[in-house]
Amino acid sequence: FHHEYVSNKNTHSLLRHKVLNEHKLHERGRLFVRLPEEIEWIHTPDEDLYELSDSQPPWHHVDINYTLPNENIVFESFSYDVEFSNDVSNDVNLYLCLFGGNMNTGHFYGGLQTNVGCPANLGQCQVSPDFGLIFSRWGPCESADVEASPGSFRECATYEGAFASVRRHLHWKKGKYTVILEKVSEDDNGTWVRYRVRVEDGSFVTVGKLLFRGEKPLRLGRWMYSFIEIYGAKKVYVSDVLPIFKMTLSKMKINGTDIEPATSVSYWKESPLYADVYKELGRTDWHIVVHFGAPFFVSEYPVMRLYS
User: Fold this and answer.
1) pLDDT at 21
2) Assuming Cys at both sites, which of 117, 131, 180, 183 could form a disulfide with 171, CB separation 3.0 to 4.6 Å?
3) Count of other CB atoms within 10 angstroms of residue 196
């Protein structure tokens, strides 16, 4: 694994580095390591809070990047488990993007939000924000490319670039969920992909389907990602109390087969360092743990950072 620290103020280049001292893998709290000569040290959390004290969301806190075993996999299904160790507040607009990538030429992403809604001024729907699920695809924003399940709603717009999206309210909280993308049908225009979630009692909550245009069979790109973001609309400062939670991602499957993707973690300089990402020592399965909501965390289990 490796760790990246990213700045997009002047360029979109990545500064990549590896841990220099092996013993630091077992330190508690956030691990800071020396970067190339142009940046001597990463900020400490206190320095980060001071520098960003006047900044406002969106804050893109962390990216978790996955490299799948093969290029252009014929896509049938994708799934993995996400488990929350505590309830999560919706005092701020939190987006837990659990999956993102490319299928054919369509870039997609989705997951959970604390305040899923649909602005009335778009003239499509008026839905008050609440906990929910979201699945979006960049590209043509035709309503014919979205099929919302009963109880769900859709949005096709261009205010963040052209996108088509299907959404549904679900009060997700402490517990285990399985997020599932699956191919359900093909037509002359492309392939329909459905997003649904299995909740703790074993039942399924279906959000809806998006059309991915282009060649058939539908193919999944090799690179996928997750991210955590506090998005705009609500005024939030770095000194505010953010929702604190622990989230574990595990059992990633492609077409029903367990995989162990190569994984890296990226942090953005323009966002407060509120995410701590690691693996638990003693676990041999593929998994990632995310602690979020405060500059430091003291883990209840011994951990190995993803920076080696």
Assistant:
1) 29
2) 131
3) 20
Nearest to 94 by CA among 102, 84, 103: 84
Which is nearest to 181 in space by CA: 223, 249, 134, 132? Answer: 134
SS3 label, residue 45: helix
pLDDT higher at 26 or 237: 237
The boundaries of the domain holding residue 246 are 2-305
Model pTM score: 0.81
pLDDT digits (tens, 9 = 90+) for 140-185: 888 899 999 999 999 888 877 889 999 999 999 999 999 999 999 9
Candidates 248, 245, 247; CA nearest to 293 is 245
What is the token pair recorded at 49?
């809070």
Taking CA atoms, 164 is separated from 147, 202, 220, in Å, by 10, 29, 19
| 271 phi and psi angles, rounded to 5 deg | -120, 145
**Would you list the DSSP string of 48-109?**
HHHHTTT--S-EEEEEEEEE-SSSSEEPSEEEEEEEESS----SS-EEEEEEEEEETTEEEE
How many structural domains comprise the chain? 1
**Residue for token pair 């049908």:** 185
**CATH code of the domain covering residue 186:** 2.60.120
